[in-house]
DNA sequence: AACCCTACTTAGCATTTACGAA
DNA sequence: TTCGTAAATGCTAAGTAGGGTT
């Protein structure tokens, strides 16, 4: 082994600290084995738990890496300005970080660390995670267990697919035939296996489109055809409900377009259209009206001022505007109390001040603003806040009128004409100026995001189209006619120099089509996955370090759905990582084969997981961490995402790391859905729960989190109290039966009348008091309201006596409860109560209880898992359509309006066909 | 290979709207 | 009907990924 030092190596992947040897000798491998002979490895793939972390690993580095430009400074420093006091006291903050923060970030809309959720400084996370881990464990473990079986089926399936492919080579015919019937010009270019044709149309825009070649199921319209067979298939275009589906071709003139009549638009069903010759060309004609700019700044009224050192100051309007950016967001303590945010803001604020002649006091004397802490934005905040409240409380009619006016103003920008079709624009508004809110500990958070001027905006539009007029007195930066691009307008933002694009919305044909292709590509991976897996298993032992690293990375991406992990500019962005950019301190190894990942991923969301892995993977990671590597060094020092993706694309055209996430998410979902009990007779709520459970597993796989709101705990309690209340009511109702017919006790058995174990006497007393109180409140409120009305109508208000009289009802209720408690009997309520009626109410109550309990469980499970992201981006929507068909539940229960639009292609192409498979 | 440029998807939180219980 | 909450939508930041250039 010997030559362990790095200098004798070949060119480095990244020159950042320590590098591993290019080659691995057999002795190197053996050495790793020896050191870890004890203990039998657990079977791979089991997630052990989602547990705590201790600080150690994370803040060490500091000293070590001055090496390159990778200032890792922030790692040790952490964001928690607000919390650093606790840091030192080490007090048992114990228990839920969320809660803590809540209290700490007092009243603010979002706790500081929330967002950093994972990202908390280690000192806090240690305490905080403790109890969470318990929660998460079962889910994680379950998921991991299923994973093994899921993978097995994947391999089986892949083999089957390949076998099938061998037998029947030309497969995609179905569609082509069908289509050329319908569509004279359909001349779909056939293409052979991978790669071959790629280069041809590739260069165009660098967009190299993958073109899913899912043979057997390429034509999305296939099923539809089947349903409405042969001939012309001009059946009614499917209406909103997925129930009936049929036509493959849209009916002329019969527009789905609701409303404004003026223009009947025919829906474009791209999935029925012939395949494009060259899909790097996105359009041939494109018309639009440009973008909407932010409203100009409206100066504050004279009496609202920024204060400095206790005194109001005069500002140039430009400086005032910047001050309002800060003032308006005072409620977001999370930002406003962040020292980096303050620092960046203050720097920029001082710049405008300097540029605009500084601040003056009431007498026109210069005020030198040099300390942030002396600035007081409260008056500004209060002004905006009041305005906001006022706006909300305006009469409905007024609000409506305003909305109508706004809509009318925006209407021209809402849609564009894309190849002659009307398509919705996604974000036609240029982002307004403000303060940049970077996530995690972004070094530039708080920086002023400047107003975008037309001079910065480039317009992309068809050659023949009329170029939209820029606002009066302004010009566009440029106008171009690039039909390989899908954007209508673009500008560069000043904070990070990022490009911002105006594009079509998710329900437009281009986006839908792109979405479809994404999922087809992922489905296509099914055919290659077993070979890929076999190969990387083999390469885990390669003696070429680069290959071994690549294989290991592939393993992680495949099994744990890690993101690719492109390199980032560490000086100017928050420090987050993905697979290829994992660092020494993000991976902790526990013999014999447990790996603990702890790092901040996209959006600074924490990824914390303990996994058991193949022994070889464990050994490799150990090797990649071998001294002299230390904190701050890359684990995969001979691997970049580019290399990885290049390798992947050798298996399948267009295959990249991110496809694995789509594939694994959709595949997992499909497996889970298939396992669902088919037993019918479920209520919609129960079906939905099943669906959401599957969805949740996928979300967990993808580590999609959300912050549990300050309110969660309270809401949960409330909900549970409501459930208990209903249970109590149920019990009372049952007792009434005995009152009506004493024989019931015998008939139903004593058990029937037992009190739910959830309820105890103390609680009941409390609850009764609560009910009485509620009743009082209700009565009082009603009384007051009536009086108000009388006053308004110039009548004499009702006397207090009347209120007292009315409150007697509540008193009676109280007395009744007392009596019940004493006698252990409940008098039947209502007029002419019968056992039957009572039984009915019991049934009703039981139903309500069940619904609420489901809801409660669902919500608790979802507490910090965000289902939406995977539903929107990762789970093939056709799976959901099939689920709904199979379980006979409306698609609208699962997809919101926007999602139904976005996934229109899926809904219409699958219809009620339950045989579609991912 | 490293860098920059470009363009597109994915992501969580904020704000608005819809909806269900009272 | 009204109110308060949950769901839907809006917003924009933060990723991935590919190409070109040096």
Characterise this structure.
By secondary structure, this protein is of the alpha+beta class. It has four domains: about 25-145 and about 530-650, Alpha-Beta Complex (Topoisomerase I, Chain A, domain 3), CATH 3.90.15; about 285-420 and about 425-500, DNA Topoisomerase I, domain 2; about 665-710 and about 855-910, Topoisomerase I, Chain A, domain 4 (Orthogonal Bundle), CATH 1.10.132; about 725-850, no CATH class. About 45% of the residues lie in helices and about 5% in strands. It is built from 31 helices and 17 strands. The strands form six sheets. It has a four-stranded mixed beta sheet with strand order 12-11-13-14, with no helix packed on it. A three-stranded antiparallel beta sheet has the order 1-7-8. Helix 11 (about 315-330) runs antiparallel to helix 13 (about 340-355), helix 17 crosses helix 18 (about 545-560) and helix 18 packs across helix 19. The two termini are about 50 Å apart. The model is unreliable at about 1-15, about 45-145 and about 170-260 (pLDDT under 50). It binds a DNA duplex (22 and 22 nucleotides) through strand 14, helix 16, helix 20, helix 21 and helix 28. It comes from Coniochaeta ligniaria NRRL 30616.
């Amino acid at each position: 082994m010997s030559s362990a030092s790095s200098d004798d190596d070949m060119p480095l992947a990244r020159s950042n600290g320590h590098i591993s040897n290019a080659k691995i000798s057999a002795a190197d491998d053996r050495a790793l084995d020896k050191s870890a002979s004890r203990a039998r490895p657990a079977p791979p793939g089991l997630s052990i738990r989602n547990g705590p972390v201790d600080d150690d690993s994370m803040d060490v580095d500091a000293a070590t890496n001055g090496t390159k430009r990778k200032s890792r400074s922030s790692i040790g420093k952490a964001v928690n300005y607000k919390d650093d006091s606790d840091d030192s006291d080490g007090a048992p903050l114990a228990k839920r970080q969320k809660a803590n923060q809540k209290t700490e970030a007092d009243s603010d809309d979002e706790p500081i660390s929330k967002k950093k959720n994972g990202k908390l400084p280690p000192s806090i996370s240690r305490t905080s995670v403790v109890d969470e881990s318990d929660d998460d464990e079962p889910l994680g473990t379950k998921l991991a267990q299923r994973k093994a079986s899921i993978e097995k089926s994947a391999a089986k399936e892949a083999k089957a697919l390949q076998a099938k492919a061998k037998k029947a080579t030309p497969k995609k015919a179905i569609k082509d035939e069908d289509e050329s019937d319908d569509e004279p010009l359909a001349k779909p270019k056939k293409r052979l296996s991978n790669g071959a044709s790629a280069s041809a149309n590739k260069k165009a825009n660098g967009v190299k489109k993958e073109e899913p070649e899912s043979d057997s199921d390429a034509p999305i319209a296939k099923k539809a055809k089947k349903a409405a067979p042969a001939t012309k298939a001009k059946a009614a275009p499917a209406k909103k409900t997925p129930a009936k589906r049929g036509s493959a071709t849209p009916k002329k003139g019969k527009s789905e377009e609701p409303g404004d009549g003026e223009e009947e638009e025919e829906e474009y069903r791209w999935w029925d259209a012939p395949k494009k010759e060259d899909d790097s060309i996105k359009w041939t004609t494109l018309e639009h009206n440009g973008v909407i700019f932010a409203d100009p700044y409206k100066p504050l009224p004279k009496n609202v001022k920024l204060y400095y050192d206790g005194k109001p100051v005069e500002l140039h309007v430009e400086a005032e505007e910047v001050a309002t950016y800060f003032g308006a967001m005072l409620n977001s303590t999370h930002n406003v109390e962040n020292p980096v945010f303050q620092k960046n803001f203050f720097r920029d604020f001082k710049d405008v001040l300097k540029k605009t002649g500084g601040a003056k006091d009431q007498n026109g004397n210069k005020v030198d603003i040099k300390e942030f802490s002396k600035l007081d934005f409260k008056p500004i905040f209060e002004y905006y806040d009041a305005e906001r409240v006022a706006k909300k409380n305006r009469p409905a009619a007024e609000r409506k009128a305003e909305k109508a006016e706004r809509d009318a103003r925006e209407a021209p920008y809402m849609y564009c004409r894309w190849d002659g079709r009307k398509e919705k624009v996604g974000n036609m508004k240029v982002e307004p100026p403000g303060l940049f809110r970077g996530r995690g500990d972004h070094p530039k958070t708080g920086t002023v995001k400047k107003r975008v001027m037309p001079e910065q905006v480039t317009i992309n539009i068809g050659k023949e189209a009329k170029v939209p007029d820029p606002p009066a007195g302004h010009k566009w930066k440029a106008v171009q006619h690039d039909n390989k691009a899908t954007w209508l307008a673009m500008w560069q933002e000043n904070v990070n120099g990022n490009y911002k694009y105006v594009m079509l919305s998710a329900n437009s044909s281009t986006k839908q089509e792109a979405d479809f292709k994404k999922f087809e590509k992922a489905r296509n991976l099914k055919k290659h996955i077993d070979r890929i897996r076999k190969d990387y298993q083999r390469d885990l032992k390669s003696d070429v370090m680069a290959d071994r690293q690549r294989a290991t990375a592939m393993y992680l991406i495949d099994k744990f759905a890690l993101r690719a992990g492109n390199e980032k500019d560490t000086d100017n962005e928050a420090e987050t990582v993905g697979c290829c950019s994992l660092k020494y301190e993000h991976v902790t190894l526990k013999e014999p084969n447990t790996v603990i990942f702890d790092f901040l991923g996209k959006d600074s969301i924490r990824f914390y997981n303990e996994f058991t892995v193949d022994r070889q993977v464990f050994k490799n990671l150990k090797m990649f961490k071998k001294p002299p590597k230390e904190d701050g060094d890359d684990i995969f020092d001979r691997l970049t995402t580019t290399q990885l993706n290049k390798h992947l694309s050798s298996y399948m055209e267009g295959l990249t790391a991110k496809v694995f996430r789509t594939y694994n998410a959709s595949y997992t979902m499909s497996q889970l859905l298939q396992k669902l009990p088919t037993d019918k007779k479920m209520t919609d709520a129960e079906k939905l729960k099943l669906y959401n459970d599957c969805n949740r597993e996928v979300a967990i796989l993808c580590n999609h989190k959300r912050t549990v709101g300050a309110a969660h705990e309270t809401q949960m309690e409330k909900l549970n109290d409501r459930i208990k209340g209903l249970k109590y009511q149920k019990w009372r109702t049952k007792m009434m039966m005995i009152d009506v017919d004493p024989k019931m006790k015998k008939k139903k058995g004593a058990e029937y009348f037992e009190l739910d174990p959830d309820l105890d006497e103390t609680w009941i007393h409390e609850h009764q008091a609560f009910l009485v109180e509620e009743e009082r409140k209700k009565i009082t409120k009603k009384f007051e309201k009536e009086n108000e009305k009388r006053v308004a109508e110039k009548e004499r208000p009702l006397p207090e006596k009347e209120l007292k009289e009315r409150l007697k009802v509540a008193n009676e209720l109280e007395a009744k409860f007392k009596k019940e408690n004493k006698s252990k009997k409940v008098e039947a309520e209502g007029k002419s109560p019968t056992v039957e009626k009572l039984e009915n109410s019991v049934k009703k109550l039981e139903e309500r209880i069940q619904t609420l309990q489901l809801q409660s469980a669902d919500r608790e499970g979802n507490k910090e898992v965000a289902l939406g992201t995977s539903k929107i981006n990762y789970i093939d929507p056709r799976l959901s359509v099939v689920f709904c068909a199979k379980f006979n539940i409306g698609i609208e229960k699962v997809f919101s309006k926007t999602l139904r639009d976005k996934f229109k292609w899926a809904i219409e192409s699958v219809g009620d066909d339950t045989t579609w498979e991912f």
